[in-house]
Amino acid sequence: MEFGRVTDDELGAVNFTLPADPAFTIETFASAADKSQPLQVYAGCAKWGRKEWVGKIYPPKTKDANFLDEYVKHFNCIELNATFYQVYGPDTIAKWKQKADINPDFKFCPKFSQSISHIRRLKNAEDITTSYYEGVLAFGDKLGPLFLQLSDNFTPKSLPELTAYLEQLPTDIPVFVELRHKDWFAVPENKQAAFNLFKRLNIGAVITDASGRRDCVHMMLPTQHAFIRFVGNSLHPTDYLRCDEWVDRIVQWKQMGLQSVWFFMHQHDERYSPELCDYVIEQLNKKLSINVHRPQFINKEKGLFD
User: Which fold has domain 40-288?
Assistant: First the structure.
């Protein structure tokens, strides 16, 4: 992922401290009906088709066609970017689901097609949206929340289009929205309008933690569910410190009423995503006294020199 990338020289100047919870989020948790329910914890990566993982978590000589078969053995979810680039029909998606059936806990979190979000910019997109939903529904019990990423140039001026689009979506499948244009965060009125819309429609908000876009670490939760896209820097020491802070915040949110967390690991160099995702799962297991399955490495000495 290139979003929010900074140079190595700039990295040391970034303030990675997570912002305090805004009143908006505290109010969301205050309405939680039952804070004693177990927290649903999902952690994974964005793609299964990584050749760099052959010999690391995929057995040597694993063929591309079998990458998903191997991925589902290591993680309990995937932020499915493949559906951003192409609208897949039920037949293809049913085959992916079948591969994941060996893992009873596994969920796919498919991204909305770029034809909807970036090309048509949510206008006159009913036909593509219908096709997208017809496809992803074939995941059946393997379907997690859907993920609508808006482009960097989708500005608050398009709030009416965003409102109209979200209002017509089915309400039986959770949806999270990622805002990227800086004016959504820099202008308080724009921020409040967008997140009030999400709360009214029971739609979640993606938090993207990238080095060069700290404004996207908004900590605004319109629902009692968190969808976090973490962008690391090739196992730089700050990656682990940032993950530690996220784990502590998730533990705090759980006490406040968080019902589920979806934590997706990205790296500018994706070869290192499994290591850092494993670290997050390990720490969440420890701090929450849970037992989410961790990825299994062929070379037990995980790190930069795998």
Answer: TIM Barrel (3.20.20)
* Residue 1: predicted pLDDT: 67
Q: One-letter amino acid identity for 144? A: G
Pairwise CA distance, residues 182 & 134, whole Å: 33
245: Cβ contacts below 8 Å, ≥ 6 apart = 16, 17, 18
By residue count, the chain amounts to: 306
Those residues of the chain that have pLDDT short of 50 are 302-306
The closest alpha carbon to 264, from 107, 54, 97, belongs to 107
pLDDT tens digits for 159-190?
A: 999 999 999 999 999 999 999 999 999 999 99
Residue with tokens 């000495």: 301
Cα–Cα distance measured from residue 114 to residue 116, given in angstroms and rounded to the nearest whole number: 5
Burial of 118 (0-12, 13-18, 19+ CB in 10 A): middle
Render the chain in DSSP notation, one character per residue.
Answer: --TT---HHHHTT---PPPPPPHHHHHHHHT-S-TTSPPEEEEEBS-S--GGGBTTTBPTT--GGGHHHHHTTT-SEEEE-HHHH----HHHHHHHHHHHTTSTT-EEEEBPPHIIIIISTTSS-HHHHHHHHHHHGGGGGGB--EEEEPPTT--GGGHHHHHHHHHTS-SSS-EEEE--STHHHHSHHHHHHHHHHHHHHT-EEEEEE-TT-GGG-----SSSEEEEEEEE-TT-HHHHHHHHHHHHHHHHHHHHT--EEEEEEEESSGGGHHHHHHHHHHHHHHHHT--PPPP--SSSS-STT-
Domains of the chain, residue spans: 40-288
Confidence (pTM): 0.95
> What confidence tens digit (pLDDT) does each residue in 97-110 have?
999 999 999 999 99
